[in-house]
Structures are given as structure tokens and as C-alpha cells.
Amino acid sequence: MLVDLRSDTVTRPTAEMRRAMAEAEVGDDQYGEDPTVNLLQETFAELTGQEAALFVPSGTMANQIALRVLTRPGDAVVVGARQHLVLYEAGAGPLNAGVTWLTVPDAAGSFDADAVEAAIAGADHHQPGVVAIALEDTHMAAGGAVWDPDRLAAVGAVARRHGLGVHLDGARLWHAAVASGQSLRERAAIATTVTCCLSKGLGAPVGSILAGPIEVMVAAALERKRLGGAMRQAGVIAAAGLVAMRNGVERLAEDHERARVLATAVADRWPQAGLDPKVVTTNIVIFSHPDPDALLRYLQPAGVLAGTVAPGLVRLVTHADVNDEGIELARRALARAPGD
Asked: Is residue 325 in a domain?
């Protein structure tokens, strides 16, 4: 048995997804004629309270499109220092959109509205002018942390006061909704644009969706084409996304519970890592280790695949293809692992 905890993108499509893909009604999406893609987009727009949505190949592309429609080259974006946009997209934001990052501390996965205000005020002192705010929910690098609703609202209030766009990188937004007990619409209420990944947690084989106002999505479709993301009979993969949204959300709570089991195992084995299992509220466990490479080499022959997200930081991610038996195997392997 091999338990793959490297990411929740490693899941394989279910039998129902495969049937839906084989039977999907399709058309040319670039002409707006793929009924399955259209249904996927309409469904997501409705769930997030947005006017329209756009199906794209990846979450990174969705983020890059959002930057291109909300900013112009030279504009500044306030963003958490450890967000996916900044650290895990190979420098794509400055390259593709020409933006300047104004990073604010986000060690716990979110940031204060006051930090945003301070960044905005810098424009009066010869610093780049802020036109947008970007945030990530859940925050991967902070161990899948969920934004507090009051903090979200406070950042939204700052954005409205200054007329700024807000992009919500909601790659795992469904996880945040399940963990918080809120709807996607409530979680995305402050967003001008919001994206969500269908292959992280929900189990679809490929695809993300970007939603926002109609005029913004019209511009987004052009940017998707410029980035090479326009698709044709994409209903074949959109069909799996529809199944994922219909059947993959409620079970996310199981992933969250299983992640806490792993977090407890880590805390018991390496108390010096400072990981409190109580703060693990979604499906990601991140912890420090003196020799991550050695740990990963030990875990693999024990039947467990893990990954890293930064020097000295190990990541474990639960998902639909890992059941209780797999979690128990991983728990035992962690309990015996070297590295004091």
C-alpha cells in the first residue's frame, strides 16, 4: 500500500467522473458553444455570488488572468508574503502582469486591514500605487489556515473605501467553507474576482474556475487566450468538474479530520516542531524538521510519500484517495521516523 500525501492534486478521477467525461455533451468552448463548460461556469458563478465565470486549465493561470484584468504594468498589489501568488508561481505575476508586490506579514495565513492601509498610504511617499489586494483562502503555506470572517470583512472594507480590486485565490475555497461552516458565497463576498481549483480536494483531474463581474470575465477570456489557455471541446474535462462540485464537497470534512490525526502524530514525535494539532483545521499539515530529505527517504519505503514547501518544512496533504487505513499507516510511519 502506498499513501501519497504530497498533494491533493494526485487524486485519480472516480468512476462517476470517467463516465461523465465519456458521455459529456460538448461544443467549441472558444465560441461559447460547449454546454458542459457553460453549465460548470454558471454553477460556480451562482455558488460564489458572481455574475459570470471562466473555466481555465490551472489555478496559476486563473490567478495570472485575474492580475492582468485587475491591474496594469507598474501597479502594486498588496499580498501576503507567503501566498501562492508570490512564492509558488515561478515569478509569474511580475512577468505576466508587470505588477509590483507590496507584501505584508501573513505568518498565520492572513493579514490585518491596517497593514493594507499602510501599504496604500505609501503612494503619498513616492512608493508604487496600490490598485488591488490579493489574498489566499485557505492559505497553503500556513498549513491550510482559514481566514477569519471578521478579518476578511475588514480587508474588504478597506478595498471599498479606496476603490481597490480584490482577488481571492480560493484554490481550496471549498475547504475553507466546510471548515468555517460558511457558504462559498459568504467566503467570497469581498472578492472582485475569485478562483477555485477543481483538482485540489474535490478530485477532478484538471481545471480551475475564475469568477467575477461580466465585463471582467469578458476581459478575462481574452487574457486566457493570450496565455494559451483557450480550449475547444473542453466539456470532456468540465464534466468531471461538475461531478466534483456535486459529490466532492461534503466529504472534505473527512480530510480535515484525517489531517488532524497526522498533525497529532507529528506533534507527538517532534514536540520541538511546535505544531499544535488544534490549529490544523483543513487538509494540510506543515511542520519543521531538521532533515526533511532524510525524513522523506525514510517514509517512502515505509509506504508514505510526503513533500516539502520550503527549506526545513515538510508538508502532508490529505485527500479523497487517502482513507483511514492509509492514515493509520502514515501515523505509524511518522511515529517511528528518525530526526530528533
From this structure: yes
Q: Where are the beta strands (DSSP E) in 158-306?
A: 165-169, 193-197, 208-212, 284-288, 304-305
User: Could you give the CA distance from residue 4 to residue 24 in angstroms, rounded to a whole number?
Assistant: 30
Q: Which residues contact 27 (CB under 8 A, 6 or more apart)?
A: 33, 34, 35, 233, 235
With contact defined as beta carbons under 8 Å apart, do 198 and 9 qualify?
no
Task: Note whether 280 and 263 are within 8 A (CB).
Answer: yes
> Last residue of a domain, which of 218, 247, 276?
247
130 vs 69, 162, 245, CA distance in Å?
A: 15, 9, 35
Range(s) of the domain holding residue 320: 251-336
C-alpha grid cell, residue 232 = 475547444
Cell numbers for 339, please give them: 530526526
Report mean pLDDT in 10-residue bins for the chain, 340 residues. 95 97 96 97 98 97 98 97 97 96 96 96 88 98 97 97 98 97 97 97 95 98 96 97 94 97 97 93 96 96 97 97 97 90
* Residues 122 and 38 reside in one and the same domain: yes
Domain contains 8: no
- Classified as helix, coil or strand, 203 is coil
Spatial CA neighbour of 236 closest among 41, 60, 17: 17
The reported pTM is: 0.96
Which one of 188, 212, 247 terminates a domain? 247
Q: Looking at the structure, do residues 200 and 106 belong to the same domain, yes or no?
A: yes
Q: Which residue, 69, 326, 40, 317, is CA-closest to 196?
A: 40
Residue 125: inside a domain, yes or no? Answer: yes
**Please, are residues 320 and 255 in contact by the beta-carbon 8 Å criterion?**
yes
Q: Are residues 113 and 158 in the same domain?
A: yes
How is 87-105 classified by DSSP, letter by letter?
HSSTTHIIIII--EEEEE-
DSSP states of 17-34: HHHHHHH-----GGGT--
